[in-house]
Amino acid sequence: MKNNIQIEYDYSVAKAFAVVAILFGIIGMTVGVILAFQLAFPQLSNLAGEYGTFSRLRPIHTNGVTFGFTLSGAFAGWYYISQRVLKVSLKESPFLMAIAKMHFVLYFITILLAVITLFMGFTTSKEYAELEWPLDILVVVWWVLWGISIFGLIGIRRERTLYISIWYFIATFISIAMLYLFNNMEVPTALVSGYGSWIHSVSMYSGTNDALVQWWYGHNAVAFVFTVPIIALSYYFLPKESGQNVYSYKLSILSFWGLLFVYLWAGGHHLIYATVPDWMQTMGSVMSVVLILPSWGSAINMLLTMKGEWQQLQTNTLIKFMVLASTFYMLSTIEGPIQAIKSVNAIAHFTDWIPGHVHDGVLGWVVFMIMAALFHMVPRMYKREIYSKSLMDTQFWLQTTGIVLYFTSMWIAGITQGMMWRAYDEYGSLVYSFIDTVTVLHPYYTIRAVGGLLYLIGFFMFSYNIYKTIRCGRVLDKEPVNATPVAA
Questions:
Q1: Which residues are annotated binding-site positions for Cu cation?
Q2: pTM of this structure
Q3: Would you place residue 4 in the very low, low, confident or very high pLDDT band (cuts 50, 70, 90)?
Q4: Which residues bind Cu cation per the record (predicted)?
Q5: Within a domain: 1
Q6: In this predicted model, what pLDDT tens digit does every residue of 127-153 receive, in sequence order?
Q7: How confident is the model at residue 70 (pLDDT cuts 50, 70, 90)?
Q8: CB-side exposure of 440: number of CA atoms within 13 Å?
Q9: Residue 414 placed within a domain
């Protein structure tokens, strides 16, 4: 009987997060392209004084894309997916609705303040953890609110079985809560000593201990922001858009537990050849290689979901986005473990191959999947047809070209760097000076900047298409359905 209940879902919070995701996506990616052109043409760094320097803009780029765009997309996905798979509406609980709205408001204020304070130069200088202590407290508050939303909706659900996407959202909440609290333990210097800015703080850890905690957090920020919630989106939106059942639910569960156990131990590969104990470096390398198994398990599961329905790639651009995203996930999760092998890391570390690896994962996997999710959600939330499918297709090919230019140029630049830095003559002296490597890499930096610009143009096309869909897309009298129905 419960399947016959007509539930009126409330998408107000999902809509808010979707709009903010696009806003922070524009900010984060625009700053990223500016940085890419600055690296290719250093004179551009002087155009805005101290506010245009790499040190001011880089954390805005990373935080804008990571905690602005990606988390917003994940939260939009949660408030859309959870109601549907749990068969419950936020309208049914005024308390949970209030929690969800508070979650959005505090989140938006925090990210906006993050952009402002980082632009002003307030930073802890810890990667992915640059926000100072007042903002850290805000983050904890709205993260707890999200947790209340998660377990509150689960508690009042009508659907007894928890779909795999819900598992991944729960893992995101619990893991980031643990990681963020431990890594961001800091002491406000003005409150303790009476000197300095009231917003400034120092880490409670020092030296090697600080590095260990930082990269335990830093690598798992990649795991539980760039990976786990995006898998949650893919496990819902790919089957819904394609009309196919998930290929193997058992494989999704095995990959889930494998990913959670292994990922937490892989952060040590950021500290290979550093002052941390050798066994920790080795553990980081080994766990990184083992990480291929659960990562590829998820990616292969997504691709095999399309088994027998590959012709949809010819007609459905959203399927193209999600299939290519899964392919880039496979690429990124084989590339990272290769870089974590000690002999390879000796060449790769500190080179441009590292940002090449990060960006083929983020641009190809994370952003593609979130854009596909938004393209799927918006017509159903606003009851309007996508404004332009041809614009969507053009965007896909433009951004794919941009990604390929980006990561191939950085692969070549990084390996070139690593080999030149290690080149010795018969007397044991370095063959090349540092400026020699900079000169050689200039063409690749230019290609990287052009690739990033193409991708940014594609994101503006995406934003325009979403805007026009909301404002003047053809009104739908019923929800879009898939050409191929999902089997009962």
A1: 219, 269-270
A2: 0.94
A3: low
A4: 219, 269-270
A5: no
A6: 999 999 999 999 999 999 999 999 999
A7: very high
A8: 18
A9: yes
**Domain CATH number, residue 149:** 1.20.210.10
* pLDDT at site 485: 41
In a domain, 165, yes or no: yes
Joined together, the tokens standing for residue 172 give: 């995101």
Overall average pLDDT of the 16-20 stretch: 98
Q: Which residues are annotated as a binding site for heme b?
A: 61, 357, 359
Q: pLDDT tens digits for 75-126? A: 999 999 999 999 999 999 999 999 999 999 999 999 999 999 999 999 999 9
Q: Tally the residues of the chain.
A: 488
CB 114 within 8 A of CB 136: no
Domain count, the chain: 1
CA distances from 183 to 64, 126, 179, 248, 331 (A): 20, 9, 6, 36, 29
- What string of H, E and C letters represents the secondary structure of the chain? CHHHCCCCCCCHHHHHHHHHHHHHHHHHHHHHHHHHHHHHCHHHHHCCHHHHCHHHHHHHHHHHHHHHHHHHHHHHHHHHHHHHHHCCCHHHCHHHHHHHHHHHHHHHHHHHHHHHHHHHCCCCCCCCCCCCHHHHHHHHHHHHHHHHHHHHHHHCCCCCCCCHHHHHHHHHHHHHHHHHHHHCCEEEHHHHHCCCCCCCEEECCCHHHHHHHHHHHHHHHHHHHHCHHHHHHHHHHHHHHHCCCCCCHHHHHHHHHHHHHHHCCCHHHHHCCCCCCHHHHHHHHHHHHHCHHHHHHHHHHHHHCCCCCCCHHHHCHHHHHHHHHHHHHHHHHHHHHHHHCHHHHHHHCCCCHHHHHHHHHHHHHHHHHHHHHHHHHHHHHHCECCCCHHHHHHHHHHHHHHHHHHHHHHHHHHHHHHHHHCCECCCCCECCCHHHHHHHHHHHHHHHHHHHHHHHHHHHHHHHHHHHHHHHCCECCCCCCCCCCCCC
State the pLDDT at residue 2.
Answer: 47
Let me know if residue 478 belongs to a domain. no
- Domain assignment of residue 377, given as a range: 7-191+201-472
Has residue 280 got a pLDDT over 50?
A: yes
